[in-house]
């Protein structure tokens, strides 16, 4: 039979018995809540279920959870999670006994990140970062409840990151207009590579990015074997390991794995680039072939790195007198030009490899004035026809004199 005791704090302590020994299962705000939780524990005892060590430190739970996650996450994602745990969670909760942790502590902890400012008085941590931190601790406590069964409920359940200013202007998406893009591509088509002036790697890369919408990490990992006719398959990306060395890894999520179709001109640009590359490999002693057969290799046969590409494209933009929008700007440009040309939101979402169509809508629909103008023209055209039809019907109903 469970026993209950009201503490000086006003909370209620619940204790249950097992094998003749009574022990506390925690404290609760009301007696009713304590009775409910005690009943759950007594049911587990009755059916012979294991009651694990409820005095475990939070850091001990994290260690078990991390071993579980190691086998379920790809390396790059696990590294991000490990960093969050090491820098942002364990310093606060590592030495606490998980049974002693309270929902209010977690709420205060995440709020401290929301409130933290940098030297300029701006938020030090973005809403996205705070959401990730809270998601990780929710996962740890969920594991403690349902896998190692040392908690009765997830005390972080339904906690959310507060948004102090929901009207704050969204960070602008950088993209090239069609005029800017064409000006840059025209410049690059005539630009001569310093070492191999007939090797138009950056023109081809920029053209391809603007016509495919791939992330730069996806494009730099592409192989010629991924291109079949007018279709190209995206199934890997480049990234950096802990030693800052380039490596080829799996993609961001399942929706990132995709096969997209390229327009005729884009295929022709790639085929022409391939012929130039093969000719240099055969005839030049200083031009080497990449062992993986990648598309965008440098003359040494190595992968291009995103940092090198960023620096090079920024330099070319300055020379072409076109504002630099970053390598991701080509992806944004592709999406916006597709929408402006009349492509459906679903088509654009799948082509970009977005997890949901909402991501695409939230990112692009409010950006370009042309989309709004086109949609209003469609509405005006539709309503105008209806008005004219009604007028014609009215005119027909008037008898001729």
TrEMBL record:
Keywords: DNA integration, DNA recombination, DNA-binding. The keyword Magnesium does not apply. This is Site-specific integrase. It comes from Paenibacillus albidus. GO terms for biological process: DNA integration; DNA recombination. It comes from the Bacteria. Residues 56-145 form the Core-binding (CB) domain. GO terms for molecular function: DNA binding. Residues 171-378 form the Tyr recombinase domain. Belongs to the 'phage' integrase family. The gene is xerC. The keyword Aminoacyl-tRNA synthetase does not apply.
């Amino acid at each position: 039979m469970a026993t209950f005791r009201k503490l000086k704090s006003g909370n209620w302590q619940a204790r249950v018995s097992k094998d003749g020994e009574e022990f506390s299962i925690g404290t609760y705000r009301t007696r009713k809540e304590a009775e409910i939780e005690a009943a759950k524990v007594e049911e587990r005892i009755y059916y012979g279920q294991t009651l694990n060590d409820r005095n475990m430190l939070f850091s001990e739970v994290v260690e078990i959870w991390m071993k579980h996650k190691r086998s379920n996450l790809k390396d790059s994602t696990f590294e991000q999670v490990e960093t969050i745990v090491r820098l942002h969670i364990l310093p606060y909760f590592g030495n606490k006994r998980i049974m002693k942790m309270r929902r209010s502590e977690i709420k205060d902890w995440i709020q401290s990140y929301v409130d933290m400012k940098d030297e300029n008085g701006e938020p030090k941590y973005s809403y996205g970062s705070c959401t990730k931190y809270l998601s990780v601790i929710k996962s740890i406590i969920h594991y403690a409840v349902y896998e190692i069964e040392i908690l009765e409920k997830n005390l972080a359940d339904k906690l959310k990151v507060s948004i102090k200013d929901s009207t704050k202007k969204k960070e602008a998406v950088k993209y090239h207009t069609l005029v800017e893009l064409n000006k840059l591509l025209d410049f690059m088509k005539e630009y001569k590579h310093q070492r191999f002036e007939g090797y138009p790697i950056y023109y081809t890369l920029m053209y391809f990015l603007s016509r495919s919408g791939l992330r730069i990490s996806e494009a730099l990992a592409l192989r010629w074997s991924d291109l079949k006719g007018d279709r190209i398959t995206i199934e890997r990306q480049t990234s950096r390991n802990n030693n800052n060395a380039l490596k080829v890894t799996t993609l961001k999520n399942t929706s990132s794995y995709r096969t997209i179709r390229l327009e005729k001109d884009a295929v022709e640009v790639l085929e022409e680039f391939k012929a130039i590359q093969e000719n240099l490999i055969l005839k030049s002693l200083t031009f080497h072939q990449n062992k993986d057969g990648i598309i965008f290799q440098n003359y040494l046969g190595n992968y291009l790195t995103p940092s090198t590409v960023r620096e090079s494209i920024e330099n070319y933009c300055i020379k072409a007198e076109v504002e630099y929008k970053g390598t991701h700007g080509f992806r944004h440009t592709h999406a916006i030009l597709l929408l402006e040309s009349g492509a459906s939101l679903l088509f654009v979402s799948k082509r970009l490899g977005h997890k949901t169509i909402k991501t695409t809508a939230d990112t692009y629909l409010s950006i370009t004035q042309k989309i709004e103008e086109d949609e209003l023209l469609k509405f005006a055209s539709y309503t105008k026809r209806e008005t004219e039809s009604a007028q014609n019907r009215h005119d027909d109903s008037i008898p001729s004199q």
